[in-house]
Amino acid sequence: MYKILLAAALLLVLLLVLWYFLMAPKDTLGVDGELKVGQSLISANGRHQFVVGPTALSIVSGGKPSWSSQQYQGPAPLKLLMQGDGNLVVYDADNKAIWAYSFVRESGPFIPGSKLKLQDDGRLVFVRPDSSVSPLF
């Protein structure tokens, strides 16, 4: 009986760990992480959501849009990739880069290994490998 209870407890722990890594809301897009249409980042406090839509990106705060990119008129759907070189890139359905942080950033190299994070205040930031933070906008 003891072995059955122990096995059941271990199975439960394993299922919880799998759920956490596969299903739990995430506030960070890691290195080489990708968000496709309908996927999102959710701030740790649950008040803000960064959403990838079929033709635009948006931040929703308290159930209302607080920021949105321009609508893309090309082949949908979009996907967002946090590249290993530190560049954040939006691709269209033809896998063509239609926007990249490198398009708007005017100086300095990208920091390989950076991540994208949605903070509890609703801001998107880059988190560098040394844990320093730089706002996206």
Describe it for me?
It is a single chain. With 137 residues, this protein is of the alpha+beta class. The protein is built from two helices and twelve strands. The protein has helices at 2-22, 101-104, and strands spanning 28-29, 33-36, 40-42, 48-52, 57-61, 64-68, 79-82, 88-91, 97-100, 115-118, 124-127, 133-135. The strands form three sheets. It has a four-stranded antiparallel β-sheet with strand order 1-10-11-12, with no helix packed on it. Strands 2-7-8-9 form a four-stranded antiparallel β-sheet. A hairpin with a 5-residue loop joins strand 7 and strand 8 (88-91). The radius of gyration is 18 Å and the shape is globular. The mean pLDDT is 84.
Core attributes:
single chain; 137 residues; globular; 2 helices; alpha+beta
Instruction: Give me the number of helical elements.
Output: 2
What is the beta-strand fraction? Answer: 25-35%
Q: What composes the largest sheet?
A: 4 strands, antiparallel
Rg (CA only): 18 Å
* Strand segment tally: 12
Give the strand line-up of the largest sheet.
1-10-11-12
First-residue to last-residue Cα separation: 59 Å
pLDDT < 50 stretches: none
Principal-axes shape call: globular
Query: Which series of helices and strands comes N to C?
Result: HEEEEEEEEEHEEE
Relative helix content: 10-25%
The overall pLDDT, averaged over residues, is 84
Structural class: alpha+beta
